[in-house]
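User: I'm putting together a teaching handout on how multi-component assemblies are represented. Below are the sequence lines for each component of a complex, exactly as they appear in our records. Could you produce the 3D structure of the whole assembly as structure tokens, so the students can see both representations side by side? Please keep the chain order the same as the input.
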Amino acid sequence: MATVTIGSSEFDRDTAVTRRAPGVYDAHLSAGWTIIQAVNGGYLLALMGRALGDALPHPDPFSVTAHYLTASVPGPAVIRTEVVRAGRSMSTGTASLVQFREDGTEVERLRVLASYGDLSALPDDVRTTAKPPAIPPYEICPGADSAPGGRPAISGSTAITERLALRLDPATAGWAVGAPSGKGEMRAWFGLADGRDPDPLSLLLAVDALPPTAFEMGLSGWVPTVELTAHIRHRPAPGPLRVAITTRNLAGGFLEEDAEVWDSEDRLVAQSRQLARTVLHG
Amino acid sequence: MATVTIGSSEFDRDTAVTRRAPGVYDAHLSAGWTIIQAVNGGYLLALMGRALGDALPHPDPFSVTAHYLTASVPGPAVIRTEVVRAGRSMSTGTASLVQFREDGTEVERLRVLASYGDLSALPDDVRTTAKPPAIPPYEICPGADSAPGGRPAISGSTAITERLALRLDPATAGWAVGAPSGKGEMRAWFGLADGRDPDPLSLLLAVDALPPTAFEMGLSGWVPTVELTAHIRHRPAPGPLRVAITTRNLAGGFLEEDAEVWDSEDRLVAQSRQLARTVLHG
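Assistant: Of course. Below is the structure of the complete assembly, with chains in the same order as your input.
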């Protein structure tokens, strides 16, 4: 497929919002970004990020927190934003995504609190001591179609996997052949299937687009995200990203997933942490 | 000083809120929790946490995000809360803290988005792979009065240091004698000076109560918090806490501080990440 530019990708199409009044946006949650019957949380975060980028006076997400309240479904949605503070170099806002029941009443899906700035205005110093993840070269990491033993068995929709160009680190792909490592780790090369280069909004997708570390820890069942906070630290360079996710605190029916996103110039362009539930309470 | 119980500590007194109407609370920001002219961010987080614990149907913070908008000052404040969703095992809410200018108009200091639950209702399984920090025993870690060379020179108020029983890991205390390590690390034993045992609310203070890692990295000047997200994962056991903070991504005028809080039973009871600015833009 020919590489598409930023703005003309299916990612852009499916995260588009239409402002119908100040602070009110129409959106459509695409079925193309679902996994195991759930609309992917990173896709929803990117969608909210696009609305906030329009609502706030600064263009780029710096810190974005989402609380996932009820399960989104493909279909129409409305996003309402509020400007909390418009500063000189940063601004802060909230966003609420709702969908509609058959009787027309609203149900809120996500609530977001975020601060935005201008990544282009930041000084270019780098004193990062973190190191890029040790993922084998792109060519030897299996894509979904080339995983040993064929496509992993996941019940329900795997539509999102057709939107992404994911190549898992074999060391974190044991779950796909019934041999989970037992370690809370997941690593992959990440890109969009239509070749669109990354940008700050697609980083919001990238932090929540890998298989869950729970798969490698031998946990079965759904591990829904309760809350996710992402920091966007630099505009990503063109080319594939490397995403490394770690879980170190699986306890009490919850776990955290820490994600790092590295670009092709070895910059740590995004960091996130999510809190997810491993045991659904009554 | 005799050990005080949870509820009767200066921490409880200074984070108390009075509900004057549904969702509206009066508070007083105490000058006792300031450092270098700023009201400590963890103290503010705990104060908001107390209000939300009253406003929401679940008692304990699970995930709390604060965006620090303008600098708080000691004095009166009003907190307004909103219930976003009241679920069966978790609920979500927002909180806004405002103070008043001389002309009576409001200025917002913090905006918080948080999900609450009941820590006592969680199953007791622990598969945490993270390990407690290697801090030397309490007895050999210097308190503020016993730091080599005497009390570190910090200009402006150090009132909060009188509220806390902090004992720094000597390996992260080089800054106090003009010899910063250059590493983005800060570790300490943490308690309250009046001996109050920790609880979920005081964990919100603990994640932001150590000297900044910036001190060890040789950065001078103020490093204000833009946003902080804390996960409270377990009710802490009585006794001192160990707090370990790490910075790995100092770049572009920002840095992150990742904090882990361990209790006396070697449980990882809280984790947080904050985004802070190292260079104040115009």
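A couple of points students might notice: Residues 147-153 of chain B have pLDDT under 50 and may be disordered. The two ends of chain B are 46 Å apart (CA to CA).
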